[in-house]
Amino acid sequence: MLHKVLVVNDNELLLLIAKKMIALSNFAEETITATNGLEAIEYFEDLLQNERPLNEAPEFIFLDLHMPTMDGWEFLAVFTEKYAKHFPNLKIAILSASVDMQEMLMLVKYPIVIDFVSTPINEEVLNTVLAKYYATQYQKA
């Protein structure tokens, strides 16, 4: 079980479903949410600026690509450039209502992204993502 997960999605219903499924499946002890990439970036900026302990940071992010204000692509670019080095164990799964092969190919340039999953999140998806997360952690060791 992970300590903390962040779900970034502008759809309030999908956020609610994700929080419920994560809690029911014991994927993570705590789920926090953001409704766009900018809110998520501000969260990580706050962690760094206020020198909060890294154990307060999420270990995993479920990220929607299509959101207003700052979409998932913009979040990935900013996070990778400015924040990833501070959170080396953090991994991301992309959330999408449909599988777009073009988008999947574009994600190759982001090694932090370990999966592309369909919404809404279910227990099978969470189990698969958790296994992939732990596999990436053991590869580092």
Structure description:
The protein has one domain (2-140): Rossmann fold. Helix content is 45%, strand content 22%. It is built from five helices and five strands. It has helices at residues 12-25, 37-49, 72-83, 101-106, 123-140; strands at 2-8, 28-34, 60-64, 91-96, 113-118. The chain has a five-stranded parallel β-sheet with strand order 2-1-3-4-5. Helix 2 (37-49) packs parallel to helix 3. It is globular. 28% of the residues are buried. The model has no long low-confidence stretch (mean pLDDT 91).
Helical content band: 40-55%
CATH class: Alpha Beta
Derived from helix and strand composition plus strand pairing, the structural class reads alpha/beta
Number of helices: 5
State the end-to-end CA separation.
19 Å
Order of helices and strands: EHEHEHEHEH
Q: Characterize the overall form.
A: globular
Kindly identify the CATH topology.
Answer: Rossmann fold
Q: Going across the biggest sheet, name each strand in turn.
A: 2-1-3-4-5
* Secondary-structure arrangement, i.e. CATH architecture: 3-Layer(aba) Sandwich
CATH level-four homologous superfamily name: Response regulator
What average pLDDT do the residues reach?
91
How many domain regions?
Answer: 1
- The radius of gyration over CA amounts to 14 Å
